[in-house]
Design a protein that fits this description.
The chain has 215 residues and is an alpha/beta fold. It has helices at 9-12, 45-53, 67-79, 121-129, 133-156, 166-175, 189-203; strands spanning 2-7, 56-59, 86-91, 97-101, 104-108, 161-165, 209-211. It has one domain (2-211): Rossmann fold, CATH 3.40.50. The chain has a 5-stranded parallel sheet with strand order 2-1-3-6-7, sandwiched between helices. A two-stranded antiparallel sheet has the order 4-5. The radius of gyration is 17 Å and the shape is globular.
Length: 215
């Protein structure tokens, strides 16, 4: 069985090891490598779930990911595999986008601190300004509908999947007393242990689809 996990930094295990969000943050690894650091993968909730389920983990989560990247790469995976995996996706904040640039995909966030090519800097600056509360609400509605459509597609293919939003993840772990690391937004291995335990019962249910609500 394959357990396929996608999402943003929280599913990628950012900062479980030192302050590394990407493999490329480690000076011993190519600085353009955006994958999770190989030494922290086994500490993520996805790897822990895979161990419990005796499943093979496919982890395609990436720090700073947009929902567009999550959806695109999940679809690509399904198109290129004959297996029917368990799918776990942690959807990210609604403001993020994915931009096509010279046959690559750029992930942009509303932080205003993303590194983009020189010719995109003005576009990025204006885009950050445009991320008003109303704009984010519109994006939330747009992505909620798109995610529901994707869930329906998976149900039609009888592919079991479990979706949650990062807000539910953060709210639950904070309530459990888990602390973020490096005075930031990411949880350590204890948080991944707690989230693994929370998801385990739902992953082993007979339902084809479940959306996590923690309250």
């Amino acid at each position: 069985m394959i357990l396929y996990v996608n999402g943003d930094s929280n599913s990628a295990g950012a900062e479980i090891l030192k302050d590394y969000c990407f493999a490329g943050d480690d000076p011993t690894i190519c600085d353009t490598d955006r994958r999770p650091h190989p030494e922290l993968i086994h500490k993520t909730y996805g790897a822990k779930l895979a161990k419990y389920l005796n499943a093979t983990l496919v982890l395609e989560a990436e720090s700073a990911s947009s929902n567009a990247r999550i959806l695109r790469t999940t679809r690509n995976f399904l198109e290129n595999t004959k297996a029917k995996p368990f799918i776990v996706i942690g959807w990210t904040t609604w403001d993020r986008e994915e931009w096509s640039y010279k046959e690559e995909w750029l992930q942009v966030t509303a932080s205003g601190t993303d590194s983009v090519p020189e010719e995109l800097k003005q576009k990025y600056k204006q885009w950050v300004i445009d991320q008003t509360p109303e704009e984010v609400r519109n994006k939330r509605l747009y992505w909620t509908n798109l995610i529901n459509q994707f869930s329906n597609e998976l149900n039609q293919q009888h592919i079991k999947h479990l979706f949650f939003h990062i807000d539910e993840y953060t709210k639950y772990l904070t309530k459990q007393g888990c602390k973020t690391v490096n005075n930031g937004y990411h949880f350590g291995e204890d948080g991944h242990d707690a989230w693994c335990n929370f998801l385990l019962e739902r992953l082993t249910s007979t339902q084809e689809h479940s959306t996590i609500k923690t309250n």
